Structure formats: structure tokens, C-alpha cells
Fold this sequence. Notes:
globular; alpha/beta; Metallo-beta-lactamase, Chain A; 13 strands; six-stranded mixed beta sheet
Amino acid sequence: MTPWSLIAPPPNPAERESRIQAIEQLPGLYKVAGQGGLVCDTFLVLTPAPVLIDAGSRPGWEQLVSNLKQLGKQIADVRWVIATHGHWDHVDNMARIQREHPRVKFAIHAGDAQFVINNDRVFSCAEPLYNGAKSDPIRVDRLLLDGDTITVGRIKFRILHTPGHTPGSITILAEIAGKKVGFCGDSVTGYFSMTNRSSVIDWEQSMRKLMAEELDLLYAGHRKRPLAGREEIRAYLLKALNAASHKRKQFVREEMYQDLVYSLENP
Length: 267
């Protein structure tokens, strides 16, 4: 079955407007790609210059291009792509963007940057999670740190470092159409693996940081709809915080970890 977002452009203005409404989240904010676990939810923010939150992966390329076209945009118009983290499903398309449109800039947190520069396929989950999917090195134009801002047009994007899923996972904060919006990628409920440098301690601390932000809308990397309203967002984050705390306690009970603690406490 062909996804709705890959169907040829509608023949009349009314149908075109209907398709735009289907991807519009807020005035100036659009979900332009997303196919479950294989392609992350990718968002376009019109500042009015276009900014992409994550680039997605190659299975979602046509979906991305088609939805930009519906909005009267193309990849070459994009000013910045800001990655929530360096996993394949979130950054893979950036390599193609850079080959075809080298003026488009790419920003990622310093904690994940070297992995995408070196095309570390284990870190990115291209292997084994995505069954050996093709991937390429990505040029990083700006290294991000906690508290950094990127201002494009009339919108300021603030970087909140929320590691745990990966060392360089971030939540991108912005005020859009009068709403305090966060794009957290997989920071809250993402795949957890020591092979990918996940940290349960960081995850727990990051949930506390996010809870302090009091957001109106929170967009995660693989959800059909955003978390809306402070009560729903807080409940979602609290559930993740409890999961992180539970996993940390599991690690404490592991024999190897207990031996390490004992050796440190009894030199």
C-alpha cells in the first residue's frame, strides 16, 4: 500500500490544502516525514526561512520531498537541519542533503558529533538494529552544547542537553505560534543499549530537566501525535523517569556492578 504522503500531488487547490492541513501541527510547524521506527518524525519550522528538526532516513526521502513541495518548498531552501541525536533514522538523509545542497547547514550536539562524522555504524544502529542499512559520513557545521541557541528568522531554538539515549541527545526548544514547544527525538522513551553509549543515570537526570521546562507541546521522534498540555507531558516524563530509576536499580543488583562498588569502597 502506498503511504498517503507518497501519492502524486493533488490536482486541485482544495485537495492540496487538505494535504497541508494533514501535516500542519501549528501555524508555521509541519510534520513532513515519519514512518514508525524506520523513519523518525521530521518537522519543518518556517521562521520564515525553513528549518528541519532531524533529517530522517532514506526510506522517507520521497515523503520528505513531497511534503516540502506541498508547502512550496524544496530541500535547497532549508537553512539549518538540527538533529536531536545521531542515530541512523534521524540523520541518514543529511548525507544526501549535503551532497546535493551543500549550503544547507547541519548542527548536532558535541556528544554525538564524532560518531556521525566517522559514520560509526554500530553507534548509529545501522548495524545491527537496521539490518545493515546503507549510511554515509556527515559533515557537522556546528557543534551544540547545553544552553546554545540558533536563531533563524524570528525564531530562537534553544538547546537542552538531554542525554541517556545517546551521549549527545538533545531537546530543541522554541516558541512557535505562542506555544512553548519541545522536540525531544528519542530522549524520553528511546531504544536503550550500552553498545550505543546509552546511560541510565543520564536518562534519569534528563527527565528531571525536561519536567522543569513546563512545555505546552512535546514532539517525540516516533509518535502519531504530540504530547499536549503540561499535565499530559508531566505524566509522560514521570513514567519515563520511573522506568529509568527501575533500570538503574536493576544495574545496582547485578553482581559485576556490586563487585565494582565493593572494590571502590574497600580499597
